[in-house]
TrEMBL record:
Name of the protein in its database record: DNA ligase D 3'-phosphoesterase domain-containing protein
Biased composition regions of type Basic residues, renumbered to the chain: 205-239
Native species: Methyloceanibacter superfactus
NCBIfam families found in the cross-reference section: LigD_PE_dom
Region annotated Disordered, chain positions: 1-35, 165-239
Source species taxonomy: Bacteria, Pseudomonadati, Pseudomonadota, Alphaproteobacteria, Hyphomicrobiales
Signal peptide feature range: none
Pfam family, one: LigD_N
Amino acid sequence: MARAQDDDLLATYKAKRDFAKTPEPGPKRARKKGNSFVIQKHAARRTHFDFRLEKDGVLKSWAVTKGPSLDPSQKRLAVRTEDHPLEYGGFEGVIPKGEYGGGPVMIWDEGTWEPIGDADEGLAKGDLKFRLHGKRLNGDYVLVRMKKDRTGGKRENWLLIKKRDDYAGDGDEPTEAFDTSVKTGRSMEQIETGADSAVWSSNKAQKKTPVKKRAAPAKKKTAAKPKAKAKPKAKRAAK
């Protein structure tokens, strides 16, 4: 029963993608436990920031429309999305147009996180408090679930809010201050055009393509020297 529940965590992720067409990692759930987090800038139909926290062997995910803020007065809409495999945290590249979420993806920030209180209880109640230790974002945040969509939609809306601490700043917008990848230093335009090879880091060893030796240049044939013509025999003098 537990195994089936584990597989279900990535069922939606798998159903939305054609892995024969997209370079995104497959729906494999990690067995190891960790506490990583990643924020990926994603220029799909609308540019947004995918906020992901590692939990239960997957990345719990929210799409933050305007991106995270350092200003405690800013309540950023964070739409809950399907769980993603841990390998997705290393994905930076381009999802083909026409595929789900088509567009360039940048690793905007990464690091570790720690829950403040019980994470399971916080998720269930819709009040998840946590602390980030990232390359760009640090300090305390909270994800608060809003009331269900009154129109009957299935969308699960949350709010991402910065708590007031030493890392907070009124009016500060880190998404405007930083516009390159923390992994490769590339801009969204460079990722989209494939500058410096857009790849995602996989745990699988990459196959090395053997270097073919160049064939030795063919030796030029020396032109044959023309044979010397035989000298005509001298005629004998008549007696």
